[in-house]
Write a structure and sequence with these properties.
Layout lengths: L26 E7 L6 H9 L6 E7 L6 H11 L4 E6 L4 H11 L4 E5 L3 E3 L3 H9 L4 E8 L6 H9 L19 E5 L18 H11 L4 E11 L5 H17 L1 H4 L3 H19 L3 H11 L1 H10 L1 H4 L3 H26 L18
Parallel strand pairs: 1-2, 1-4, 2-3, 6-8
Antiparallel strand pairs: 4-7, 5-8, 6-7
Length: about 350
């Protein structure tokens, strides 16, 4: 296990801010924005209202055009010392995260999406988890529309883990709700290179585990996340993530389940072509809808209680999103990039 205290000796932090206005924050929360005028105020308010943990909110804007910057400036003026607009320029997502990290003053640094809100107790739960771990990911509660096909598709594809026994970070690592110890930034930064940015959180976590850092899941640190609310948005999300997984396969490993499903589809299609009939068609249909069925079994009652029409509609369209992921994944495999890394060479480590 890497001892982060050997990376950079740190003096005991003062409890008094340099400007004299109260204690230093214990937690810095970095919020990236791009045209989030409808969401930003609610997100920041949920952070400012956290009890028991002195924190600051750093807004890193990506050159929004919808009034987001004006809202950020107003929030900054009304919460002096607690909310700060760091910049508003067209930065890629990786450099934007790194900028937020570099501007943070607290020993613990968190990320939360601008289209999310932190539940009461979120900050306390994150800080508690960071006392034993180097990187922590919290629980997401997705809040798409409560009815309709899109809502069920979203519910089927994402699971909300209620305990901290989840072993594989790729099942929960998401910068929608994440926190790190400051010293981690002396070892790693976020990369940004095309499709890899769709999985910057998973790549970051993979690199951290290779360095011996401790990665944990904290189910009591909850954020409520507004996610893709259209079928087109869901399709694009799956296509982008599939390509990201493919291009990062040398680092993250092969997605064997996806490839096995693809092979099953080829076999099923071959059988149907060679022996047309109801049973070969049933075999192909069974393979095609297997991922959706598996997600319902894993997800349990909450999904089965959806309106029958919405659940049926989700089953009809779900394979389209799985196919989008599969095809993009295969394309990414052909362009895999083993050299992508966020590790900082020893000579480049921060002092």
């Amino acid at each position: 296990m890497t001892d982060l205290q050997t990376v950079r000796p740190t003096a005991k932090r003062s409890t008094q801010r340099q400007d004299g206005r109260g204690p230093d924050p214990l937690l810095s929360v970095v919020v990236l924005t791009l045209d989030e005028a409808d969401n930003l105020e609610e997100a920041v308010s949920s952070l400012i209202d956290q009890d028991g943990v002195p924190l600051e909110v750093l807004i890193v804007d990506g050159d929004s055009k919808d009034g987001t910057v004006g809202i950020a400036e107003r929030l900054e003026a009304h919460n002096v010392g607690r909310v700060r607009l760091v910049t508003s320029e067209p930065l890629p997502i990786g450099p934007a995260r790194n900028l937020g990290l570099s501007e943070a003053r607290a020993p613990f640094i968190a990320f939360m999406s601008a289209d999310a809100t932190a539940a009461p107790g979120w900050a306390k739960a994150m800080v508690k988890a960071l006392e034993k771990a180097d990187i922590v990911y919290g629980r997401q509660e997705h809040t798409p529309p409560k009815t309709g096909v899109t809502a069920v598709v979203r519910g089927l594809r994402y699971h909300h883990f209620n305990d901290d026994t989840i072993a594989a970070p790729e099942t929960f690592a998401s910068n929608v709700n994440a926190a790190i110890r400051r010293e981690v930034f002396d070892l790693l930064t976020y990369v940004d290179e095309g499709p890899a940015s769709a999985l910057d959180d998973i790549l970051f976590t993979h690199e951290a585990k290779e360095l011996g850092l401790r990665v944990a899941y904290q189910p009591s640190a909850v954020v409520r996340h507004k996610d893709a609310t259209t079928l087109a948005g869901e399709y694009e999300k799956n296509r982008r993530e599939g390509y990201g997984w493919g291009i990062l396969a040398p680092k993250l490993g092969t997605h064997r389940t996806v490839l096995a499903w693809g092979a099953g589809l080829l076999v099923g299609a071959g059988l149907l072509a060679a022996r047309p009939g109801w049973w070969t068609g049933a075999v192909l249909a069974g393979v095609l809808w297997a991922p959706a069925l598996r997600r319902v079994v894993r997800g349990g009652g909450p999904y089965l209680r959806r309106a029958p029409a919405s659940l049926a509609g989700a089953f009809v369209v779900s394979p389209l999103f799985d196919l989008a992921f599969l095809l993009a994944y295969v394309r990414g495999l052909s362009q895999r990039r083993p050299e992508l890394t966020g590790r900082i060479p020893p000579q480049g480590a921060r002092s």
